[in-house]
Design brief:
The complex is a heterodimer. Chain A is mostly beta strands. Chain A contains no helices and eleven strands. In chain A, strand 6 and strand 7 form a beta hairpin. The chains are: A mainly beta, B mainly beta. At the A-B interface, strand 5 and strand 10 of A face strand 5 and strand 10 of B.
Chain lengths: 114, 116
């Protein structure tokens, strides 16, 4: 079984500052990991995903995440926050079987301060 | 390519009524998954359909049901609505089964259901 914990339901950063959104997972099998973003009144959009291979994954809009098996973490970072990054971010995990569900975290709302 | 579309976008119902929501996946996608999103519970998986067959189901009561048609369009139905069913219902499509693969899920904008 898989589960995801996102630390902090709300995170505020100043424009231009580092963005760090934390995600820890639990999985009995090698996980597939995802980060999605949701803008107001919209569905979710995939930012990046880790399946196998390189543990540092680069996504859209300057975001990246690093898979750390020893820490069971998949934190999302962006070097310099932009006002347009204000949104809700979801971490998700899935197992390696075709019929595995994708389990989402409860989300972290990112606020950008001017 | 057109994205995932969901209809209607907004819906107001009263307790005890039933509701049907529709989802049209991206052309060529055969998998459709449904999620319920609420502020308290976040995104919760309802079910996934692939080639007209339910392949996976979340922990929701039997009042929640779905189906998929031969053109991959999907509907979900909620009978005997309760106040707690008020939520944003999201549909996502992917080429293959969503879980356990590198297949990307593409989400629709959702249907916001309010139960009074």
């Amino acid at each position: 079984a898989q589960s995801v914990t996102q630390l902090g339901s709300h995170v505020s950063v100043s424009e231009g500052a580092l963005v760090l959104l934390r995600c820890n997972y639990s999985s009995s099998v090698p996980p597939y990991l995802f980060w999605y973003v949701q803008y107001p009144n919209q569905g979710l959009q995939l930012l990046l995903k880790y399946t196998t291979g390189a543990t540092l994954v680069k996504g859209i809009n300057g975001f990246e995440a690093e898979f750390k098996k020893s820490e069971t973490s998949f934190h999302l970072t962006k070097p310099s926050a932009h006002m347009s990054d204000a949104a809700e971010y979801f971490c998700a995990v899935s197992g390696g079987n075709r019929d595995d569900k994708i389990i989402f975290g409860k989300g972290t709302r990112l606020h950008i301060l001017p | 390519k057109a994205g995932v579309t969901q209809t209607p976008r907004y819906l107001i119902k009263t307790r005890g009524q039933q509701v049907t929501l529709s989802c049209s996946p991206i052309s060529g996608h055969r998998s459709v998954s449904w999620y319920q999103q609420t502020p308290g519970q976040g995104l919760q998986f309802l079910f996934e359909y692939f080639s007209e067959t339910q392949r996976n189901k979340g922990n929701f009561p039997g009042r929640f049901s779905g189906r998929q048609f031969s053109n991959s369009r999907s509907e979900m139905n909620v009978s005997t609505l309760e106040l707690g069913d008020s939520a944003l219902y999201l549909c996502a499509s992917s080429f293959g089964l969503a879980g356990g693969t590198s297949r990307t899920q593409y989400f629709g904008p959702g249907t916001r259901l309010l139960v009074l």
